[in-house]
Design goal:
Layout lengths: L2 H4 L6 E4 L9 E2 L10 E3 L12 H6 L4 E4 L9 E4 L3 H12 L8 E6 L4 H12 L5 E5 L2 E4 L2 E3 L8 H13 L4 E5 L2 H5 L8 E6 L15 H10 L4 E7 L5 H7 L4 E5 L5 E10 L4 E9 L1 H7 L4 E7 L4 H16 L4 H7 L10 E4 L4 E6 L4 H12 L5 E6 L7 H14 L2 E4 L9 H12 L6 E3 L3 H10 L5 E6 L6 E4 L2 E4 L2 H12 L2
Parallel strand pairs: 2-3, 3-4, 4-5, 6-10, 6-11, 7-10, 11-12, 12-13, 18-22, 19-20, 19-22, 20-21
Antiparallel strand pairs: 1-5, 7-8, 8-9, 14-15, 15-16, 17-18, 23-24
Length: 495
Protein backbone atom coordinates (compact mmCIF):
# COMPACT_ATOMS: atom_id res chain seq x y z
CA UNK A 1 0.00 0.00 0.00
CA UNK A 2 1.03 3.63 -0.45
CA UNK A 3 1.74 4.22 3.22
CA UNK A 4 3.38 7.65 3.17
CA UNK A 5 0.88 8.92 0.63
CA UNK A 6 -2.04 7.88 2.87
CA UNK A 7 -0.61 9.20 6.14
CA UNK A 8 -2.80 12.19 6.95
CA UNK A 9 -1.19 15.24 8.54
CA UNK A 10 2.38 13.91 8.39
CA UNK A 11 5.02 16.53 7.61
CA UNK A 12 8.22 14.85 6.43
CA UNK A 13 11.40 15.32 4.46
CA UNK A 14 13.38 12.69 2.56
CA UNK A 15 16.98 13.50 3.42
CA UNK A 16 18.67 10.58 1.67
CA UNK A 17 17.83 7.65 -0.55
CA UNK A 18 14.80 7.12 -2.76
CA UNK A 19 11.31 6.53 -1.40
CA UNK A 20 9.53 3.44 -2.70
CA UNK A 21 6.20 3.78 -0.92
CA UNK A 22 5.40 0.09 -0.59
CA UNK A 23 6.31 -1.61 2.69
CA UNK A 24 5.81 -5.08 4.14
CA UNK A 25 5.17 -3.76 7.65
CA UNK A 26 5.43 -0.76 9.94
CA UNK A 27 7.82 -1.45 12.83
CA UNK A 28 9.14 0.42 15.88
CA UNK A 29 10.49 -2.51 17.89
CA UNK A 30 13.94 -3.83 16.91
CA UNK A 31 12.83 -7.37 17.78
CA UNK A 32 10.03 -7.29 15.19
CA UNK A 33 11.91 -6.11 12.09
CA UNK A 34 10.96 -7.87 8.84
CA UNK A 35 12.40 -7.48 5.34
CA UNK A 36 11.21 -4.39 3.41
CA UNK A 37 9.56 -2.81 6.44
CA UNK A 38 9.60 0.87 7.35
CA UNK A 39 11.15 1.39 10.79
CA UNK A 40 10.27 4.33 13.05
CA UNK A 41 13.06 5.28 15.46
CA UNK A 42 11.79 6.23 18.91
CA UNK A 43 13.69 7.92 21.72
CA UNK A 44 12.55 6.16 24.88
CA UNK A 45 13.28 6.84 28.53
CA UNK A 46 16.13 4.31 28.60
CA UNK A 47 16.84 3.40 24.98
CA UNK A 48 16.93 5.33 21.70
CA UNK A 49 16.69 3.28 18.50
CA UNK A 50 18.37 6.12 16.61
CA UNK A 51 21.55 4.73 18.18
CA UNK A 52 21.25 1.29 16.55
CA UNK A 53 20.39 2.23 12.96
CA UNK A 54 23.26 0.11 11.57
CA UNK A 55 21.69 -3.03 13.07
CA UNK A 56 18.21 -1.97 11.92
CA UNK A 57 19.31 -1.46 8.30
CA UNK A 58 21.27 -4.75 8.21
CA UNK A 59 18.03 -6.65 8.82
CA UNK A 60 16.53 -5.53 5.51
CA UNK A 61 14.67 -2.39 6.47
CA UNK A 62 13.50 -0.47 3.39
CA UNK A 63 13.17 2.97 5.04
CA UNK A 64 13.75 4.58 8.41
CA UNK A 65 11.89 7.47 10.02
CA UNK A 66 14.08 9.65 12.25
CA UNK A 67 14.22 12.93 14.17
CA UNK A 68 17.96 13.44 13.61
CA UNK A 69 19.93 14.57 10.56
CA UNK A 70 21.06 11.15 9.40
CA UNK A 71 22.22 10.50 5.83
CA UNK A 72 22.88 7.04 4.44
CA UNK A 73 23.40 5.53 1.02
CA UNK A 74 21.92 2.12 1.84
CA UNK A 75 18.39 3.06 2.96
CA UNK A 76 15.75 5.75 2.48
CA UNK A 77 15.85 8.18 5.41
CA UNK A 78 12.71 10.17 6.23
CA UNK A 79 13.06 13.00 8.73
CA UNK A 80 10.16 14.28 10.85
CA UNK A 81 9.89 16.66 13.79
CA UNK A 82 8.51 13.99 16.15
CA UNK A 83 8.74 10.28 15.44
CA UNK A 84 6.01 9.45 17.96
CA UNK A 85 3.62 11.62 15.96
CA UNK A 86 4.87 9.94 12.78
CA UNK A 87 4.30 6.48 14.24
CA UNK A 88 0.71 7.36 15.13
CA UNK A 89 -0.05 8.90 11.73
CA UNK A 90 1.62 6.04 9.85
CA UNK A 91 -0.14 3.43 11.98
CA UNK A 92 -3.54 4.91 11.13
CA UNK A 93 -2.62 4.81 7.43
CA UNK A 94 -1.13 1.30 7.61
CA UNK A 95 -4.45 -0.09 8.88
CA UNK A 96 -6.51 2.10 6.48
CA UNK A 97 -7.78 4.56 9.10
CA UNK A 98 -10.20 2.18 10.90
CA UNK A 99 -11.02 4.68 13.69
CA UNK A 100 -12.71 6.94 11.13
CA UNK A 101 -15.24 4.19 10.38
CA UNK A 102 -16.44 3.75 13.99
CA UNK A 103 -17.40 5.95 16.92
CA UNK A 104 -14.52 6.09 19.40
CA UNK A 105 -15.29 7.05 23.01
CA UNK A 106 -12.38 7.91 25.30
CA UNK A 107 -12.46 8.03 29.09
CA UNK A 108 -9.74 9.75 31.12
CA UNK A 109 -9.27 10.47 34.82
CA UNK A 110 -7.19 9.44 37.82
CA UNK A 111 -9.88 7.06 39.03
CA UNK A 112 -12.90 5.45 37.47
CA UNK A 113 -11.67 4.89 33.89
CA UNK A 114 -11.84 1.11 33.99
CA UNK A 115 -15.22 0.82 35.70
CA UNK A 116 -16.82 3.58 33.61
CA UNK A 117 -15.56 2.01 30.38
CA UNK A 118 -17.02 -1.40 31.26
CA UNK A 119 -20.32 0.23 32.18
CA UNK A 120 -20.48 2.18 28.92
CA UNK A 121 -19.64 -0.93 26.92
CA UNK A 122 -22.59 -2.75 28.51
CA UNK A 123 -24.92 0.18 27.82
CA UNK A 124 -23.93 0.53 24.16
CA UNK A 125 -24.18 -3.23 23.64
CA UNK A 126 -27.95 -2.89 23.99
CA UNK A 127 -27.95 -1.76 20.35
CA UNK A 128 -24.57 -2.56 18.79
CA UNK A 129 -21.29 -4.44 18.98
CA UNK A 130 -18.62 -2.70 21.04
CA UNK A 131 -14.86 -3.08 21.41
CA UNK A 132 -13.16 -2.31 24.72
CA UNK A 133 -9.56 -1.21 25.34
CA UNK A 134 -8.11 -0.50 28.77
CA UNK A 135 -6.35 -1.53 31.96
CA UNK A 136 -8.01 -4.94 32.10
CA UNK A 137 -7.10 -5.71 28.48
CA UNK A 138 -8.74 -5.71 25.05
CA UNK A 139 -12.16 -7.26 24.51
CA UNK A 140 -13.69 -7.79 21.07
CA UNK A 141 -16.75 -10.03 21.28
CA UNK A 142 -15.67 -13.25 22.98
CA UNK A 143 -11.97 -12.54 22.38
CA UNK A 144 -9.98 -11.11 25.27
CA UNK A 145 -6.27 -10.44 25.57
CA UNK A 146 -4.09 -8.47 27.99
CA UNK A 147 -2.38 -5.16 27.26
CA UNK A 148 0.97 -3.84 28.47
CA UNK A 149 -0.40 -0.31 28.91
CA UNK A 150 -3.79 1.16 29.79
CA UNK A 151 -3.68 2.79 26.34
CA UNK A 152 -1.60 0.71 23.88
CA UNK A 153 1.14 2.14 21.67
CA UNK A 154 -0.27 3.78 18.54
CA UNK A 155 0.57 0.85 16.23
CA UNK A 156 -1.15 -1.65 18.54
CA UNK A 157 -4.03 0.76 19.02
CA UNK A 158 -4.80 1.12 15.31
CA UNK A 159 -4.29 -2.61 14.80
CA UNK A 160 -6.92 -3.17 17.49
CA UNK A 161 -9.25 -0.64 15.85
CA UNK A 162 -8.91 -2.64 12.61
CA UNK A 163 -9.77 -5.87 14.45
CA UNK A 164 -12.81 -4.18 16.01
CA UNK A 165 -13.98 -2.91 12.63
CA UNK A 166 -13.50 -6.31 10.98
CA UNK A 167 -15.50 -7.90 13.82
CA UNK A 168 -18.44 -5.59 13.12
CA UNK A 169 -18.02 -3.13 15.98
CA UNK A 170 -19.79 0.21 15.66
CA UNK A 171 -18.21 1.61 18.81
CA UNK A 172 -14.90 1.34 20.63
CA UNK A 173 -14.77 2.40 24.28
CA UNK A 174 -11.24 3.01 25.50
CA UNK A 175 -9.35 4.32 28.50
CA UNK A 176 -7.07 7.23 27.62
CA UNK A 177 -4.22 7.75 30.07
CA UNK A 178 -2.43 11.08 30.37
CA UNK A 179 0.77 9.20 29.61
CA UNK A 180 -0.74 8.06 26.30
CA UNK A 181 -1.52 11.67 25.36
CA UNK A 182 2.00 12.73 26.36
CA UNK A 183 3.55 9.91 24.33
CA UNK A 184 1.34 10.73 21.29
CA UNK A 185 -0.31 7.29 21.24
CA UNK A 186 -3.70 8.86 20.47
CA UNK A 187 -2.31 11.44 18.02
CA UNK A 188 -4.63 12.04 15.06
CA UNK A 189 -7.60 10.10 16.47
CA UNK A 190 -10.91 11.96 16.43
CA UNK A 191 -13.03 10.89 19.40
CA UNK A 192 -16.80 11.13 19.12
CA UNK A 193 -17.07 11.55 22.89
CA UNK A 194 -14.58 12.19 25.69
CA UNK A 195 -15.31 11.69 29.39
CA UNK A 196 -13.41 13.27 32.30
CA UNK A 197 -14.01 11.40 35.59
CA UNK A 198 -11.71 13.27 38.02
CA UNK A 199 -8.09 14.15 38.73
CA UNK A 200 -5.97 13.91 41.88
CA UNK A 201 -2.26 14.03 42.75
CA UNK A 202 -1.05 10.75 41.30
CA UNK A 203 1.18 9.55 38.43
CA UNK A 204 3.78 12.18 39.25
CA UNK A 205 7.42 11.08 39.14
CA UNK A 206 10.48 10.57 36.93
CA UNK A 207 8.77 8.06 34.61
CA UNK A 208 5.39 9.80 34.40
CA UNK A 209 4.72 13.54 34.89
CA UNK A 210 7.14 16.06 36.38
CA UNK A 211 4.42 17.81 38.41
CA UNK A 212 0.65 18.13 38.82
CA UNK A 213 0.40 21.00 36.33
CA UNK A 214 1.84 18.82 33.58
CA UNK A 215 -0.46 15.95 34.58
CA UNK A 216 -3.52 18.23 34.37
CA UNK A 217 -2.34 19.70 31.08
CA UNK A 218 -2.16 16.31 29.36
CA UNK A 219 -5.50 15.22 30.82
CA UNK A 220 -7.06 18.40 29.40
CA UNK A 221 -5.24 18.21 26.07
CA UNK A 222 -7.17 15.04 25.27
CA UNK A 223 -10.38 17.09 24.97
CA UNK A 224 -9.06 19.00 21.96
CA UNK A 225 -9.59 15.71 20.07
CA UNK A 226 -13.24 15.20 21.07
CA UNK A 227 -16.45 16.20 19.29
CA UNK A 228 -18.37 15.97 22.57
CA UNK A 229 -17.04 16.44 26.11
CA UNK A 230 -18.59 15.12 29.35
CA UNK A 231 -17.00 16.41 32.58
CA UNK A 232 -17.48 15.67 36.28
CA UNK A 233 -18.65 19.09 37.50
CA UNK A 234 -17.80 18.22 41.11
CA UNK A 235 -14.09 17.95 40.37
CA UNK A 236 -12.29 21.15 41.36
CA UNK A 237 -10.51 21.26 37.99
CA UNK A 238 -13.65 20.82 35.87
CA UNK A 239 -13.72 24.47 34.75
CA UNK A 240 -10.15 24.21 33.47
CA UNK A 241 -10.92 21.04 31.52
CA UNK A 242 -14.06 22.57 30.00
CA UNK A 243 -12.15 25.68 28.93
CA UNK A 244 -9.42 23.60 27.29
CA UNK A 245 -11.96 21.48 25.43
CA UNK A 246 -12.62 22.48 21.82
CA UNK A 247 -15.71 20.27 21.57
CA UNK A 248 -18.83 21.61 19.89
CA UNK A 249 -20.94 20.00 22.62
CA UNK A 250 -20.01 20.14 26.31
CA UNK A 251 -21.94 18.46 29.13
CA UNK A 252 -21.44 17.98 32.86
CA UNK A 253 -22.43 15.31 35.36
CA UNK A 254 -22.71 15.44 39.14
CA UNK A 255 -24.63 17.74 41.48
CA UNK A 256 -26.04 20.62 39.46
CA UNK A 257 -24.79 19.11 36.18
CA UNK A 258 -26.58 18.19 32.98
CA UNK A 259 -26.79 14.63 34.30
CA UNK A 260 -27.35 14.06 38.02
CA UNK A 261 -28.01 11.01 40.20
CA UNK A 262 -31.22 11.06 42.24
CA UNK A 263 -32.94 8.75 44.74
CA UNK A 264 -29.82 6.70 45.51
CA UNK A 265 -30.73 3.44 47.24
CA UNK A 266 -28.14 0.94 48.52
CA UNK A 267 -29.38 -2.64 48.21
CA UNK A 268 -27.99 -5.75 49.90
CA UNK A 269 -29.83 -9.05 49.71
CA UNK A 270 -29.20 -12.66 48.76
CA UNK A 271 -29.53 -11.89 45.05
CA UNK A 272 -28.07 -8.41 44.65
CA UNK A 273 -25.42 -6.19 46.18
CA UNK A 274 -25.41 -2.81 44.52
CA UNK A 275 -27.31 0.41 44.00
CA UNK A 276 -30.55 1.67 42.47
CA UNK A 277 -30.68 5.24 41.18
CA UNK A 278 -32.55 7.65 38.95
CA UNK A 279 -30.83 10.03 36.55
CA UNK A 280 -32.13 13.53 35.89
CA UNK A 281 -31.37 15.35 32.64
CA UNK A 282 -31.11 19.10 32.04
CA UNK A 283 -33.39 21.02 29.67
CA UNK A 284 -30.56 21.21 27.15
CA UNK A 285 -30.15 17.43 27.12
CA UNK A 286 -33.90 16.76 27.03
CA UNK A 287 -34.44 19.01 24.05
CA UNK A 288 -31.45 17.81 22.07
CA UNK A 289 -31.78 14.06 22.71
CA UNK A 290 -35.52 13.65 23.31
CA UNK A 291 -35.11 12.05 26.72
CA UNK A 292 -37.35 12.31 29.80
CA UNK A 293 -36.51 14.67 32.65
CA UNK A 294 -35.89 11.66 34.90
CA UNK A 295 -35.10 8.03 34.11
CA UNK A 296 -35.83 5.92 37.20
CA UNK A 297 -35.07 2.42 38.49
CA UNK A 298 -31.56 2.09 37.09
CA UNK A 299 -29.75 -0.81 38.79
CA UNK A 300 -25.96 -0.77 39.21
CA UNK A 301 -24.36 -4.12 40.03
CA UNK A 302 -21.11 -2.61 41.33
CA UNK A 303 -21.50 -1.35 44.92
CA UNK A 304 -20.69 2.09 46.24
CA UNK A 305 -21.28 5.81 45.94
CA UNK A 306 -18.15 6.30 43.83
CA UNK A 307 -19.55 3.85 41.31
CA UNK A 308 -22.72 5.93 41.10
CA UNK A 309 -20.51 8.66 39.62
CA UNK A 310 -18.91 6.16 37.26
CA UNK A 311 -22.38 5.03 36.22
CA UNK A 312 -23.64 8.58 35.66
CA UNK A 313 -20.71 9.34 33.35
CA UNK A 314 -21.43 6.17 31.36
CA UNK A 315 -25.18 6.81 31.31
CA UNK A 316 -24.60 10.38 30.11
CA UNK A 317 -22.49 9.15 27.21
CA UNK A 318 -25.01 6.43 26.38
CA UNK A 319 -27.86 8.96 26.24
CA UNK A 320 -26.04 11.32 23.87
CA UNK A 321 -25.02 8.31 21.77
CA UNK A 322 -28.67 7.34 21.36
CA UNK A 323 -29.33 4.49 23.82
CA UNK A 324 -33.04 4.37 24.71
CA UNK A 325 -34.19 5.08 28.28
CA UNK A 326 -35.67 1.60 28.80
CA UNK A 327 -32.34 0.02 27.87
CA UNK A 328 -30.56 2.05 30.55
CA UNK A 329 -32.47 0.48 33.43
CA UNK A 330 -31.06 -3.04 33.50
CA UNK A 331 -27.90 -2.85 31.38
CA UNK A 332 -25.70 -2.14 34.42
CA UNK A 333 -27.32 -4.65 36.78
CA UNK A 334 -24.96 -7.46 35.80
CA UNK A 335 -21.92 -5.34 34.97
CA UNK A 336 -18.77 -6.74 36.53
CA UNK A 337 -15.24 -5.36 36.45
CA UNK A 338 -12.61 -7.84 37.57
CA UNK A 339 -11.15 -6.73 40.88
CA UNK A 340 -12.94 -3.36 41.00
CA UNK A 341 -15.54 -3.62 43.75
CA UNK A 342 -16.29 -6.99 42.21
CA UNK A 343 -19.18 -8.83 43.85
CA UNK A 344 -17.81 -12.36 44.19
CA UNK A 345 -20.64 -13.87 46.26
CA UNK A 346 -24.04 -12.92 47.66
CA UNK A 347 -26.28 -14.90 50.00
CA UNK A 348 -28.66 -14.42 52.93
CA UNK A 349 -25.70 -15.27 55.22
CA UNK A 350 -22.80 -13.13 53.97
CA UNK A 351 -21.42 -11.28 50.96
CA UNK A 352 -17.91 -11.15 49.44
CA UNK A 353 -16.36 -8.37 47.34
CA UNK A 354 -12.89 -8.12 45.77
CA UNK A 355 -11.19 -4.79 45.17
CA UNK A 356 -7.84 -3.38 44.08
CA UNK A 357 -7.65 -0.88 46.98
CA UNK A 358 -3.98 -0.91 47.95
CA UNK A 359 -3.33 2.35 49.79
CA UNK A 360 -4.87 4.23 52.71
CA UNK A 361 -6.99 6.59 50.61
CA UNK A 362 -8.61 3.88 48.49
CA UNK A 363 -9.01 1.57 51.51
CA UNK A 364 -10.72 4.24 53.60
CA UNK A 365 -13.00 5.07 50.68
CA UNK A 366 -13.85 1.39 50.21
CA UNK A 367 -14.71 0.91 53.88
CA UNK A 368 -16.96 3.99 53.98
CA UNK A 369 -18.62 2.79 50.77
CA UNK A 370 -19.36 -0.67 52.15
CA UNK A 371 -20.83 0.80 55.34
CA UNK A 372 -23.73 2.03 53.20
CA UNK A 373 -24.86 -1.61 53.03
CA UNK A 374 -25.12 -1.89 56.84
CA UNK A 375 -23.20 -5.13 57.39
CA UNK A 376 -23.31 -6.57 60.89
CA UNK A 377 -19.56 -7.08 60.58
CA UNK A 378 -17.16 -5.66 57.99
CA UNK A 379 -14.20 -8.01 57.51
CA UNK A 380 -11.12 -6.85 55.57
CA UNK A 381 -8.55 -9.31 54.18
CA UNK A 382 -5.43 -7.38 53.21
CA UNK A 383 -1.65 -7.11 53.09
CA UNK A 384 0.77 -4.65 51.54
CA UNK A 385 3.30 -4.80 48.73
CA UNK A 386 6.97 -5.36 49.43
CA UNK A 387 9.79 -3.10 48.24
CA UNK A 388 7.43 -0.14 48.31
CA UNK A 389 7.06 2.81 50.67
CA UNK A 390 6.52 1.58 54.23
CA UNK A 391 4.13 4.47 54.80
CA UNK A 392 1.58 2.59 52.70
CA UNK A 393 1.56 -0.46 54.97
CA UNK A 394 1.57 1.64 58.13
CA UNK A 395 -1.38 3.76 57.02
CA UNK A 396 -3.38 0.77 55.76
CA UNK A 397 -2.89 -0.96 59.10
CA UNK A 398 -4.09 2.11 60.97
CA UNK A 399 -7.11 2.67 58.71
CA UNK A 400 -8.27 -0.95 58.89
CA UNK A 401 -7.73 -1.05 62.65
CA UNK A 402 -9.88 2.03 63.13
CA UNK A 403 -12.61 1.42 60.57
CA UNK A 404 -13.02 -2.34 60.01
CA UNK A 405 -14.74 -4.65 62.48
CA UNK A 406 -12.22 -7.43 61.89
CA UNK A 407 -8.96 -7.49 59.92
CA UNK A 408 -7.22 -10.56 58.51
CA UNK A 409 -3.65 -9.48 57.76
CA UNK A 410 -1.91 -11.55 55.10
CA UNK A 411 0.51 -11.44 52.17
CA UNK A 412 0.11 -9.24 49.11
CA UNK A 413 3.03 -9.17 46.63
CA UNK A 414 5.91 -9.38 49.10
CA UNK A 415 8.43 -9.29 46.25
CA UNK A 416 11.90 -9.47 47.84
CA UNK A 417 10.85 -8.66 51.40
CA UNK A 418 9.83 -11.22 54.00
CA UNK A 419 6.05 -11.47 54.33
CA UNK A 420 6.39 -11.70 58.10
CA UNK A 421 8.28 -8.40 58.22
CA UNK A 422 5.60 -6.62 56.19
CA UNK A 423 2.87 -8.03 58.43
CA UNK A 424 4.80 -6.90 61.51
CA UNK A 425 4.95 -3.37 60.11
CA UNK A 426 1.20 -3.40 59.47
CA UNK A 427 0.43 -4.68 62.97
CA UNK A 428 2.67 -2.03 64.55
CA UNK A 429 0.09 0.57 63.49
CA UNK A 430 -3.03 -1.60 63.59
CA UNK A 431 -2.65 -2.93 67.14
CA UNK A 432 -2.59 0.49 68.90
CA UNK A 433 -6.02 1.28 67.40
CA UNK A 434 -7.59 -1.53 69.42
CA UNK A 435 -9.08 -3.05 66.28
CA UNK A 436 -9.75 -6.79 66.21
CA UNK A 437 -7.42 -8.76 63.94
CA UNK A 438 -5.65 -12.01 63.13
CA UNK A 439 -2.54 -12.68 61.05
CA UNK A 440 -2.47 -15.46 58.44
CA UNK A 441 0.62 -15.06 56.21
CA UNK A 442 -0.61 -17.41 53.45
CA UNK A 443 -3.13 -15.44 51.35
CA UNK A 444 -5.06 -18.52 50.23
CA UNK A 445 -5.46 -19.64 53.83
CA UNK A 446 -6.50 -16.13 54.84
CA UNK A 447 -9.27 -16.04 52.22
CA UNK A 448 -10.42 -19.52 53.23
CA UNK A 449 -10.48 -18.46 56.88
CA UNK A 450 -12.63 -15.40 56.13
CA UNK A 451 -15.25 -17.50 54.33
CA UNK A 452 -15.18 -20.62 56.52
CA UNK A 453 -15.61 -18.46 59.62
CA UNK A 454 -18.12 -16.00 58.16
CA UNK A 455 -20.96 -14.97 60.45
CA UNK A 456 -24.52 -14.02 59.62
CA UNK A 457 -24.50 -10.51 58.13
CA UNK A 458 -20.77 -10.39 57.33
CA UNK A 459 -19.49 -8.37 54.41
CA UNK A 460 -16.02 -9.63 53.50
CA UNK A 461 -13.75 -7.39 51.42
CA UNK A 462 -10.61 -8.98 49.97
CA UNK A 463 -8.44 -6.08 48.89
CA UNK A 464 -5.06 -5.13 47.46
CA UNK A 465 -4.69 -7.32 44.38
CA UNK A 466 -8.01 -7.05 42.59
CA UNK A 467 -7.70 -8.30 39.01
CA UNK A 468 -4.05 -9.38 39.32
CA UNK A 469 -3.62 -13.03 38.37
CA UNK A 470 -0.30 -13.59 40.12
CA UNK A 471 1.38 -13.32 43.50
CA UNK A 472 5.05 -12.42 43.80
CA UNK A 473 6.90 -13.96 46.76
CA UNK A 474 10.70 -13.97 47.03
CA UNK A 475 10.88 -12.45 43.55
CA UNK A 476 8.98 -15.37 41.98
CA UNK A 477 5.56 -14.90 40.39
CA UNK A 478 3.03 -17.73 40.63
CA UNK A 479 -0.55 -17.83 39.41
CA UNK A 480 -2.94 -16.45 42.00
CA UNK A 481 -6.32 -14.80 41.51
CA UNK A 482 -8.41 -13.81 44.52
CA UNK A 483 -11.68 -14.58 42.70
CA UNK A 484 -10.56 -18.12 41.89
CA UNK A 485 -9.65 -18.76 45.52
CA UNK A 486 -13.05 -17.49 46.67
CA UNK A 487 -14.85 -19.76 44.18
CA UNK A 488 -12.64 -22.69 45.15
CA UNK A 489 -13.42 -22.21 48.84
CA UNK A 490 -17.17 -21.79 48.28
CA UNK A 491 -17.24 -24.94 46.17
CA UNK A 492 -15.44 -26.82 48.90
CA UNK A 493 -17.78 -25.78 51.70
CA UNK A 494 -20.91 -25.61 49.47
CA UNK A 495 -22.40 -22.58 51.19
Amino acid sequence: MKLIENAKGLDMEIISGELHDDFSDLVFNTKKIVKDCIFVCIKGARFDTHDVIDEIVKQGTKAIVVERDIKRDDVCVIKVADTRVALARLSAAFFSHPAEKMKIIGITGTKGKTTSSHMLKNLLEQNAKVGLIGTNGITIGDIHRPTLNTTPESYELHKTFKECLDAGCEYVVMEVSSQAVKMKRTEGIRFDTGIFTNISHDHIGPDEHKDFDEYLMYKSLFFTQCDKTIVNIEDEHSDFVLKQSTSAEKYTFGKGGDFEAKNIEYISNKDFLGTKIAISCSNNVREKYNVAETVSDIYIGIPGEFNVYNAISALAAAIILGVKADDLKTALKNTRVNGRMEVAYTSHEFNVVIDYAHNAISTESLIHTLRHYNPKRLVIVFGSGGNRSKDRRYSMGEICGKLADFSIVTADNSRYEKTEDIIADIISKLKPTGGDYITIPDRREAIYYSIENAKQGDLIAIIGKGHEDYQEINGVRTHFLDREVVDECLEKIKR
